[in-house]
Amino acid sequence: MPFFQKIVVDAFTNVYVWKISESFDELFRAVSLKDISLTRLETMKSESHKKGFLAVRMLLQHAGYTDYDLYYDAFGKPNLKDGTHISISHSFEFSTIILSNKNCGIDLELRRDLIKKIARKFAEEPFVYHCDENSSDYVSKLTVIWGVKEAVFKVRNEVGISFKDHIFVSPFEMEAQNTTALLDFNELKIPFEVYFTEIENYTLVWLWEKEL
Ligand SMILES: CC(C)(COP(=O)(O)OP(=O)(O)OC[C@H]1O[C@@H](n2cnc3c(N)ncnc32)[C@H](O)[C@@H]1OP(=O)(O)O)[C@@H](O)C(=O)NCCC(=O)NCCS
């Protein structure tokens, strides 16, 4: 399946999702790439990463842009030439982008039990999230929390940010599909509005800085 979903978030913000079922060749033929992107593609080792990268270009084209409109800063943060904010994520079978008038971040993660093993490295104690470590909700919630922290990092990629010590996700229920988060790092105290949803066995999170 090619184009999978467009989520209209508000008048100026859209999330686009591609489900990758095409071969590398099919995707490659369908996009036009600038030289620097071709070089990047050649250096990628895994086929899955290459397809994720190309599917992002398919989404750009779907939204009326091309690879020529996209450039990266020295930290790897993507930007669009017309000033529209963009954030990008890919994970195995899916690629996603968010386009907005706000500085936003997006993250897509495959839900895996494995996340329980690293939970204490990035998340608060389970009771903070009213969560039983043995419930199925636990993996879902942990994956949201991980996605939020990755997405916050994509908005504010200051050197030295620790997922565990500087990014805090407010308690939430899965059904709510939204929460808030706080980046508390040195002099910075930035609240975020957070939204999330599940697509098949993936968790999609997007967020932006809250207007005060
Ligand atoms: C940059 C980072 C957030 C990417 O996340 P990821 O889950 O590996 O990969 P994703 O597919 O979700 O995102 C990749 C995209 O993020 C974007 N990205 C990369 N660096 C970025 C940055 N500094 N700022 C914003 N966006 C960035 C790029 O668009 C990239 O895709 P592309 O290069 O194909 O365009 C991640 O690698 C990272 O460095 N995280 C912080 C490390 C950390 O503190 N970990 C905590 C361990 S407890």
Q: What best-fitting shape do the alpha-carbon axes yield?
A: globular
Termini distance? 41 Å
Question: Which strand order do you get reading across the main beta sheet?
Answer: 7-11-10-9-8
Strand content: 25-35%
Fraction of residues in helix: 25-40%
Mean pLDDT over the residues: 95
Q: Total strand count, please?
A: 11
Tally of domains: 2
Low-confidence blocks of residues? none
* Bound ligands, each once: coenzyme A
Question: Strand pairing plus helix content: what structural class?
Answer: alpha+beta
Largest sheet: 5 strands, antiparallel
Tally of separate helices: 6
Helices and strands, in order, run as EEHHHEEEEEHHHEEEE
As a whole number of angstroms, the C-alpha radius of gyration is 17 Å
How are the SSEs placed, and which strands pair?
Blueprint: E1 3-10, E2 13-19, H1 24-30, H2 35-43, H3 47-62, E3 70-72, E4 78-80, E5 85-91, E6 94-100, E7 104-110, H4 115-122, H5 136-155, H6 163-166, E8 167-169, E9 178-185, E10 188-199, E11 202-209
Antiparallel strand pairs: 1-2, 2-6, 3-4, 5-6, 7-11, 8-9, 9-10, 10-11
Helix pairs in contact: 1-3, 4-5
This protein binds coenzyme A.
Residues 53, 56, 75-78, 88-90, 107, 121-122, 150, 153-154, 157, 163 line the site of coenzyme A.
